Amino acid sequence: MARYTGPKTKIARKFGEPIFGPDKVLSKKNFPPGQHGANKRRKTSEYGVQLREKQKAKYTYGVLERQFHNLFEKATRIKGITGEILLQLLESRLDNVVYRLGIAPTRAAARQIVLHRHITVNGDVVNVPSYQVKPGDVVAVREKAKSLEVIADSLAGFNHSKYPWIEWDEAAKAGKFLHVPAREDIPETIKEQLIVELYSK
């Protein structure tokens, strides 16, 4: 199954944000990678700014080009603000919901947990990270996976109230996807309108 496997710190430094999760190197070297990274003053073109925003969204949510383009096409067919709908579709991916529920410390870890069949949706095992979770769906940790150290460590002290569109049941180790999140509730610093402008060319 396709996924990004390249250098993550380099990409995080390029955007100046820990888009893959906490990064010690980023706190020390908060400038772009490369020989001239600290001194780079070249002005980025309008296209470059738009492309950068699309890449940032792709890396943040762990989606490759074809999947991302398909999601954008789907967003254009749904009534509403295309950029906002695109982010909502990305937020509704199963691997992202598992991450938001605190079951995994990063989206990459959430993807792996899903692929390893540790997650159920409405009682059925789902091992497809791109599965679209719908309002009312219950995403839970399988019984035999509840004792896994990576899941227990991630859930320890996790603040579920940060995400008002999900409801967590600690005893059952399950979360209900109440509704699609509003744009103002999504914490990612992505300028989705730039992505729409890029694809509109």
Describe this structure in words.
The protein has helices spanning 8-15, 24-28, 46-61, 65-77, 82-91, 94-100, 107-115, 149-155, 192-199; strands at 119-121, 124-125, 138-141, 166-169, 174-177. The protein has 201 residues and is of the alpha+beta class. The model has no long low-confidence stretch (mean pLDDT 87). 41% of the residues lie in helices and 8% in strands. It contains 9 helices and 5 strands, in the order αααααααβββαββα.
Observed structural traits:
201 residues, alpha+beta, Ribosomal Protein S4 Delta 41, Chain A, domain 1, Structural Genomics Hypothetical 15.5 Kd Protein In mrcA-pckA Intergenic Region, Chain A, 2 domains, five-stranded antiparallel β-sheet, 5 strands
Question: Could you provide a short overview of the structure?
Answer:
The protein has 201 residues and is of the alpha+beta class. It has helices at residues 8-15, 24-28, 46-61, 65-77, 82-91, 94-100, 107-115, 149-155, 192-199; strands spanning 119-121, 124-125, 138-141, 166-169, 174-177. The protein has a five-stranded antiparallel β-sheet with strand order 2-1-3-5-4, covered by helices on one side.
CATH topology of the largest domain: Ribosomal Protein S4 Delta 41, Chain A, domain 1
Radius of gyration: 18 Å
Inertia-based shape: globular
The chain-level mean pLDDT equals 87
Tell me the strand order in the biggest sheet.
Answer: 2-1-3-5-4
Total separate domains: 2
Residue runs with pLDDT of under 50 for 5 or more positions: none
CATH hierarchy, class of the largest domain? Mainly Alpha
Helix content range of the residues, please? 40-55%
- Would you count the extended β strands for me? 5
